């Protein structure tokens, strides 16, 4: 049996920040989940729909693993990433750091994990692995999935080899924090302004504040978009509130990040941004409740109300990000 010593197997709300927390705490860097999410410029929005999808998807964060690369770059961490099409090489890439007492992050398809409660294919799931024996791998997943958990080596191999949307080729990674890495507090403003810039200047209309506006126009049609509204609309709401988002499509996490930052930095733009995201988080939870109501009743009226809220949210979040984008100049006295 191989097990990394001194692991803090603390499950958090979101999978990628949970794994990052495990890896960084082992390096002596203990940051809150909102801080990990915010320093990784994790907040975003996408309205995703295509002909091969059963139902539209509303996403509230950047693509899988972008959060990790953003965080590593901002904090000056040494991020070592391995990918391969060979299952044998993939296992070697995990076993090697574990043998030197280093936990490893894995991106995989959660569908195959023995302990996973929701059997849905999602190739962007991230876990931390800290050990294995002849039969099982020992992982840390979200609090919702059990925190410190185990799955058979066979199921782990299937999960890592899976292909499909958001999947990676047996991706594994380690993080090393150098002694002279920047203070997390010094990276707050660059992380927020980078996130704001991406949100305010999306390359396509499905992303950022423009994506929220688009969702508001299209959500009215959702009862006609599905043969099973009683299943699909409540499921969409569940994904917004419960599927590792921290609630309110990651807006609760970003609200809490901004609150933590406002305790560290005295800046009026930061306080305003926090107030606006506090309001936005409440509205997103209300949108989710309206989607559930429309699906269960078959009544289009809640979708009309949701559309109005999404229109308001597009403007609200745009205002919040415009305010936050001015942090750098105000910090410099501009």
Automatic annotation (TrEMBL):
Domain DUF4872 span(s) in chain numbering: 155-324
Stored InterPro entries: BtrH_N, DUF4872
Top-level taxon of origin: Bacteria
Annotated ranges, domain Butirosin biosynthesis protein H N-terminal: 14-142
Name of the featured protein: BtrH N-terminal domain-containing protein
Organism, scientific name: Streptomyces oryzae
